[in-house]
Specification:
By secondary structure, this protein is mainly alpha-helical. The protein has helices spanning about 25-35, 40-105, 110-120, 135-145; strands at about 5-10, 15-20. The chain is built from 4 helices and 2 strands, in the order E-E-H-H-H-H. A hairpin with a 2-residue loop joins strand 1 and strand 2 (about 15-20). The longest helix is centred in the middle third of the chain and has 66 residues, at about 40-105. It is rod-shaped, with a radius of gyration of 45 Å.
């Protein structure tokens, strides 16, 4: 902000420009009056500052709680995933052992029965996009009446 007198030259003419009081002490006292604010505004500003600090503290506290909760939930999720993985491994091992034991029991004429055991004949559980109903019907008919050589 600009106070005081300034000398300037315009087209060779010297003139004095004035914005406000020429006395510098008067200018300082005017600035002090402008800067001094009423007691109610100062009080409101302090209260607002306290409210904002309290809100910041609350938000930091809530953020810390959320982080703790997220860490706990993540640990629980990892525990559930590990448990599920162990169960899957155990069931796969058991299925593999049963498959190996069944593979050793090979008798002539039971080939189609073994193929039928390996195939899923339930059309609703099939996750394939292709239509395999004809192949399913062929395998079922071969299981019921195997080809004679």
């Amino acid at each position: 902000f600009f106070t005081g007198a300034v000398d300037g030259v315009v087209n060779g003419d010297v003139y004095q420009e004035s914005n406000g009081p020429i006395d510098s002490y008067a200018a300082i006292s005017q600035v002090d009056r402008l800067q001094s604010e009423p007691e109610s505004i100062r009080k409101w500003r302090e209260e607002q500052k306290e409210r904002l600090e309290q809100l910041d503290a609350n938000s930091r506290k809530q953020e810390a709680e959320w982080k703790e909760k997220a860490i706990k939930e993540l640990e629980e999720w990892y525990a559930r995933q590990d448990e599920k993985l162990q169960k899957t491994k155990a069931s796969n091992r058991a299925a593999e052992e049963a498959f190996v034991n069944d593979a050793e029991d090979i008798f002539p004429g039971t080939e189609w029965e073994r193929v039928a055991q390996l195939c899923d004949f339930n059309p609703k559980s099939s996750k394939q996009a292709k239509d395999v109903s004809r192949m399913r019907s062929v395998l079922i008919s071969l299981k019921q009446a195997p080809l004679v050589r």
